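Today's session is about reading a structure prediction critically. Students often jump straight to the picture, but the first step is always the sequence itself: look for stretches that repeat, for charged clusters, for runs of hydrophobic residues. Only then move on to the predicted structure, which in these notes is written as discrete structure tokens rather than atom positions. Here is the chain we will use throughout the hour.
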Amino acid sequence: TDHVSEAIELYLDDYGHQTSEESKEHVMKLVRTILTDLMPKVSSLLPEKMEDVSEVLAAGSARYSAPDSIRSLDWLQTNGYCIDNMKAGPSTIPDAGRGAFATRRIQEGALVSGSPLLRFERDKLVTNSVFSEQLVLNYCFGHPQSTLLLFPYAPLVGLINHNSKSPNVEIRWSTKEENNEISIWTKRSYNRLVKASKVPLMIEYVAKREIQPGEEIFLDYGAEWEAAWKEHVQNWTPPADSKDYVMATTFAKLMEDQPIRTGGEQEEDPYPENLITACYYEYEESDEQYADAEDEEDHLPIIMQVWEETDLLFTCHHYLRPCFILSRGEEEDGETFYTAEVFNLPDTTQDGVDLIPDTEHHVVTDIPRHAITFVELMYEGDQHLEGSFRHPIGFPDLIFPETWKNV
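Below is the predicted structure for this chain, in token form.
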């Protein structure tokens, strides 16, 4: 968007004085129309009027498109939520995966976190695969008398596990001044709610009692959820090949001191079928890239690039890419380095600048061992097995609006 804006500003500098307002409006409309098909995100960030391009360049396209993204300290103290009261860690519940843990002492009645809510209609989550509904259902709030689902997407709130005997948090509608529209929407009909383009729904997680540092955060998911879970556990029959399943994180831990097998070695000694190797790698076009050869089968060029560690490499999920290990070598100091063909994520939503072009084979050299790990093949995790548990978290009946009950 910044590049397009710079080009428009150059046009204004050269021809703006001799271009009518009507023509400027026509040119801007044409640019936006073309970009809507090619790069819809870029188009959506451009201003309506050509004269406003200078404001985009002054503020930056991201900041211009979200003018309220910078708030004053007074506003934050009144309307903001502290989101560092929790951290992730292995849950104290056996086989539950991760959980959320208190980072400090939290007093009874204090806010643990807050979260905005996305709205879904339940039938939108139905799939045609071996599992009937999408995994996101397990992280949504729902009510037995409504087809509405509410998905909280604040950091870490999805890791808060169920405990009906001793929950230490409960949810309520936001009490912040900024969210005063909630009281209006809780009185509106279900149909109006689901058809609205923007509904500012927000919930708060509140401590039911004093919570100690390091204590796991628990929420009561409700009697219906607990009954559904108990029925699932009682009737669940593991697939015949389940004994061969291994979690990616578990396997990576087991293999952390072992060299990674090359593709040829894996033919003789394969890794578990549900896992593939993945490399931390940030793709960026560079003058240092060079075409080494041409693939014999598809005749695409093989582009070589030396691996580099960047600032956010090990913190961003989209930098962990599937990779095929071509070779392994050892330096004089004994450190092992790898050469691998690196691919885009299969479900990537990255912008084009981060995508490896599909017109090349991208081979990266000098990859250190710590930049290679194991990930699940898409839909091969245990949560995607046929008959896996799917059920929304119970939204408390006392605060669920009557007008939203449509069943």
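Discussion point for the tutorial: Residues 11 and 340 are 44 Å apart (CA to CA).
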